[in-house]
Design goal:
Three copies of one chain form a homotrimer. With 157 residues, chain A is α/β, with parallel strands linked by helices. Chain A has five helices and nine strands, in the order αβαββαββββββαα.
Chain lengths: 157, 157, 157
């Protein structure tokens, strides 16, 4: 989705358009330094059963957000408030340019301490399969390393 | 207060000019990358009962500072030492330009995980009142959201 | 050591050239945004008994790396994978320009929450002695401050 810069009315709308498990992926143009999302919206999203928030702008109430089960990936923290412009145009459930990545509704959003990735929906099955295979392979490699083998031989470098 | 860049003699002086509860708000010009404040000064400030430190430069002993009860808001961590220039000019208890914000002695300094704000002294009563009202209002809103109401109706968006 | 940008083959080699206790200090040119080091390599380095990693590029598996006993100092986190270029030139156990600091094999590498320093090998004994003296001195100063003395007198400012 796209939220007009400095405005979070479309984010409120999106919370109720989204289905349980959905992750909101939000572009805000260049207007990063606003607190687009805080305790109230996090609570609303959690009640709705949303899966998380990924936003190319800042959020506020950082200490409180960390206590919610809902994962939030944001550019940073900013206390500056947003307005409510009823005439501003945003969009929900359309492709969104997030930094230099086009994210489309239905793409699989996966994040951890390293960051977030968007996996195109049509490749999700393939990527999950490859990831699971890699995890199995790496678990076996870790076991061999712990027994004293070297990565140079394990990988045949 | 203002500390000459790369020097922390005025910070030592300020610790003993300040009264218990006072928060030191320190500009350092463009000389951010020095460790202006560390374990010794934090201990001294705590013994004096100061309320905290907000500095537009770096501090050192980051791991240790976090163990003190005294809150420290700084630009970052830097181990580079400061000098003691007995001829350098600083000032204490005069207005200070902190980034683009003029902070005056007696302004109310409030910070949390999101950052720090300076509230002009003459508006402190009004702002605290408004903040408390907002907190009461938001607590009620959070309760309504948890019972299934939507922000769209709660706020009449 | 130097690792060719976007490649971590030399890092694998270095793990097995290094001796137990050695800290790998790695320059990567300007190619910071790769995940040069992750769970597999951290495990291999720990099995080898290495002392740590200091790299002027990014690493991946950030959440997992924090669980290892091996300290990792990196520029940041990046999930972007590295390649294996068998023709690329790196070097191990030669002086390396790390940012603007020349680090030589055998230099003493010491880090904590504030950052990392490299102490030239020929000055290590002198620096450790001075550091220990300072620690003794500061412990005594902290005790005096807690008893109410002021830094102004303690340091004779």
């Amino acid at each position: 989705m796209h939220s007009p810069g400095g405005d979070n009315l479309w984010l409120h709308r999106a919370i109720y358009v989204a289905q349980p498990g959905d992750v909101l992926v939000v572009s805000v143009g260049d207007a990063h330094d606003f607190g687009y999302w805080g305790e109230i919206m996090c609570c609303a999203a959690q009640v709705r059963g949303l899966g998380g928030l990924v936003i190319d702008g800042c959020v506020r109430d950082g200490g409180v957000l960390a206590e919610f089960a809902l994962p939030v990936f944001a550019r940073g923290l900013c206390i500056r408030g947003t307005g409510k412009d009823y005439g501003a145009r945003g969009w929900i459930n359309y492709p969104t340019l997030f930094c230099d990545l086009l994210v489309r509704p239905g793409d699989l959003i996966v994040g951890d301490a390293d960051g977030v990735v968007a996996i195109p929906r049509e490749r999700a099955h393939e990527v999950i399969g490859a990831a699971q295979q890699r995890q199995v392979k790496e678990t076996a490699i870790l076991a061999r390393l712990r027994q004293g083998e070297r990565t140079l031989e394990v990988y045949n470098f």
